[in-house]
Each structure stands twice: as structure tokens, then as C-alpha cells.
Amino acid sequence: MVSISEYSDMFVNVILGVSLVFELPVLIFFLTLLRIVNPQFLLKHSRYAILIIFIIAAVVTPTPDIFNMMLFATPMCLLFFVGIFASHLLVLSREGRRFPWGITLTIVAFVLLLLAGVLFLAITKYGVKVVPHWPFFTR
Fold first, then answer.
1. Are 81 and 116 part of one and the same domain?
2. Domain check: are 89 and 125 in the same one?
3. Domains of the chain: total
4. For the segment 3-53, what is each residue's pLDDT rounded down to a tens digit?
5. 20 to 30 A Cα–Cα from 67, which one of 75, 78, 90, 118?
6. Which class for 61: exposed (0-12), middle (13-18), buried (19 or more C-beta within 10 A)?
7. Could you please report the per-residue DSSP string of 49-104?
8. Which of 77, 75, 72 is nearest to 60 (CA)?
9. 24 and 88, same domain (yes or no)
């Protein structure tokens, strides 16, 4: 039988882990601001950062299954790359250059429209069910 103190220890570990996840972009930004790292260094060594992220996820998650570890590690990896992007924007502003927002937003809009078209075709032509049962509209 599991005691209350074990549940509270697990709760504290998970909360501390989640707080670590959301502080990662801020940490990367401040390390770039202090000129300790730069975006090129972070991208070059991103495989080690991802390995460390997965090790932290394995330690912090309360259960030993891969699903819970991935629930923790995936947002942390995404936030790591958000931090690298913020770092890149900081370096560009420090050098007096501008980020090409127009080209980037055009490419992102094109990719999103392409994905929406593929999803539309998959649903209408091939009968793919994105949500097998929608409980809000059926009774």
C-alpha cells in the first residue's frame, strides 16, 4: 500500500519538473544574453540537450512507462527549440539585423494550408475519422 507521503513526494517531483520545463526558454534566453551560449552552439549540440531532456523526463515522471515520459519530454524539447529561436532573435537584434518575418510567415502559411488540404481530402474522400466519437453533439 502506498502512503500519503509517497504521493506528496511524487506530486512535488512532478510539479518541480513541470516548472523546469517552462523555465527552459527563459534560461536559454538569459544564457544568450550573457553571451555564454549562442544559437549555433545550441543547435550543434542539440542531440546532447535532447538526451539530457529525456533523462530528466525519466527521472521526474512518476511511472516507468514510455507514454508518461513522452508527455513530459515532448513539450520540453519543443520549448528548447523555442528558446533557441528566442536566442536567435536576440542575436539578430544585437547585430542590428532583422528577422525575415514575411518570408517565414508565407512559408508557414503555405505549409499549414497544405496540411489542411491533406486533412480535408483524408476526411472527405477516404473517410478518415479524426475523432471516432464526438460526445458533445450526439446523445
1. no
2. no
3. 2
4. 666 667 777 777 877 787 788 899 999 999 999 999 999 999 999 999 999
5. 118
6. buried
7. HHHHHHHHHHHHSSSSSHHHHHHHHHHHHHHHHHHHHHHHHHHHHHTT----HHHH
8. 72
9. yes
Domain hosting residue 123, numbered range:
100-139
Q: Look up residue 132 and give its amino acid.
A: P
Distance CA 18, CA 16 (A): 5
Same-domain status, 17 and 52: yes
Cell of 99: 528577422
User: Is residue 90 domain-shared with residue 108, that is, in the same domain?
Assistant: no
Residue 73 has a CB neighbour count (10 Å cut-off) of 21
Amino acid at residue number 118: V
- Spatial distance between the Cα atoms of 63 and 55, rounded to a whole number of angstroms: 14
Residue with cell 496540411: 115
Please report, as a single letter, which amino acid is at residue 133: H
Residue position matching grid coordinates 542539440: 46
